[in-house]
Design goal:
Layout: H1 7-17, E1 22-25, H2 32-40, E2 45-48, H3 52-66, E3 69-74, H4 77-91, E4 96-101, H5 105-109, H6 125-135
Parallel strand pairs: 1-2, 1-3, 3-4
């Protein structure tokens, strides 16, 4: 039995307090700790999807009916695959919390070359792009 909560547990608990009851997504290695937190949660149910784009569209549709939803993907390939659905939700003003599992901070600090990256040790590229997209106005 766990005595301490993890950051992933906190994120899931916090979203459940906002009324989130279901999490759409595709498991990915950088998101496994988040997936485990959903599995431990009594308040949020995992809804596995065939791919990230399907998960994003499902989360968007769910948010339109329920008010808010949660989407979970892994770093880079997962979040890029979900991008059309996420931005479609933004365009329609659907409330979709997109939670992205990231490589360990140590890997980012030392600019480690690992899978799901562009092979340049730069981990901020997608974060910078996301900020620009999410800050854009219609």
């Amino acid at each position: 039995m766990r005595d301490q909560s993890t950051v992933a547990d906190y994120i899931i608990q916090r979203l459940s307090r906002e009324g989130i009851t279901d999490c759409f997504g595709v498991p990915g290695d950088f998101a496994f700790k988040l997936c485990d937190a959903v599995a431990r949660s009594k308040a949020i149910r995992w809804i596995g999807c065939s791919n990230e784009l399907d998960a994003a569209y499902a989360a968007d549709g769910y948010a339109r009916v329920r008010g808010c939803s949660m989407l979970m993907t892994t770093y880079a390939v997962g979040e890029l695959s979900a991008l059309n659905g996420v931005m479609g939700a933004k365009a329609e003003r659907s409330c979709v919390f997109h939670v992205v599992g990231m490589p360990a901070m140590r890997s980012q600090r030392i600019r480690q070359i690992i899978h799901h990256t562009f092979g340049d040790g730069e981990f901020r590229t997608l974060r910078t792009s996301r900020r620009k997209l999410h800050a854009s106005r219609r």
